[in-house]
Amino acid sequence: MTPVSALGALFRAWGAPEAERPALINAAVAPDFYYADPHAPAPITSAASFLEFIAGFSRNMPGAAAELVEPVDMHHGHARCTVRFLNGGKVMMTGQYFADLDGEGRVSRLIGFAGRGAE
After folding, report:
1. Domain map of the chain by residue range?
2. Cα–Cα distance, 107 to 101 (Å, whole number)
3. CATH 3.10.450.50 correct for 3-114
């Protein structure tokens, strides 16, 4: 899996039907996955916990989704990407994410920030 396809799958899972989420997440993340963002109550340290986290997102905002905005910036096994969170086709929030990638292009560490930071 390429890093861009791994990140794309990971964020597609946010809006995917519940039955499709495990396959998307498990293909995209490394075994030692770590996730943190301002909306998570604590860092998430497994694919299973991440699945629970995004299931809560779907319960709280039915029909909401996330989409990776390309291009993705990458160097030396790291990536930076922008993600839009949508509901009803309207952008609710934009986030900036920083990822560490394993040797197979899977996401091992993903840190998210609300907004796009100072420009």
Report:
1. 3-114
2. 5
3. yes
The 10s digit of each residue's pLDDT in 25-48 is 999 999 999 999 999 999 999 999
| In the predicted structure, residue 115 carries a pLDDT above the cut 90 | no
- 75-112 tens-digit pLDDT: 999 999 999 999 998 999 999 999 999 999 999 999 99
Output DSSP code: residue 44: B
Q: Which of 110, 108, 61 minimizes the C-alpha distance to 86?
A: 61
Q: Fill in the DSSP letter of residue 55.
A: H
Residues in the chain: 119
Per-residue pLDDT, 116: 77
- The partner residues of 101 in beta bridges, in order of sequence, read 107
What gap in Å lies between CA 61 and CA 20, rounded to an integer? 18
The DSSP letter of residue 41 is S
Beta bridge partners of 107: 29, 101
Tokens of 18: 């519940």
Instruction: Please give the structure tokens belonging to residue 77.
Output: 């096994």
